[in-house]
Design brief:
The chain is an all-alpha fold. The relative contact order is 0.18. The protein has one domain: 434 Repressor (Amino-terminal Domain) (Orthogonal Bundle), CATH 1.10.260. It is built from five helices and no strands.
Length: 89
């Protein structure tokens, strides 16, 4: 599949969905890109941002572009911040 196709057109909404579609566990994806499983978890939840270099490594295994992965990571962070703000009100 062409990596320039938008995630939404492939039915993907976030990093976790893309990883699951690739049939990879957090542990397996972490091993493929040379990081810890905990990093995959924090990126999926939006608790931590990632570098373009990391997004590029992820894109090689998730059939998408680094830009789409960075966007998904930022959106996860915004959703998390919004839930927290609503909770604190």
């Amino acid at each position: 599949m062409n990596k320039t196709i938008k995630w939404a057109e492939k039915g993907l909404t976030d990093l976790r969905t893309a990883r699951n579609r690739a049939e990879l566990s957090q542990e397996a994806l972490a091993a493929l890109i040379g990081t810890k499983r905990a990093n995959i978890s924090t990126w999926e939840s939006g608790k931590q941002g990632m570098t373009r270099k990391t997004a590029t490594k992820l894109s090689e295994h998730l059939d998408t572009s680094a830009g789409e992965i960075l966007t998904a990571n930022r959106l996860a962070g915004y959703k998390r911040a919004t839930r927290l703000a609503l909770f604190l009100q």
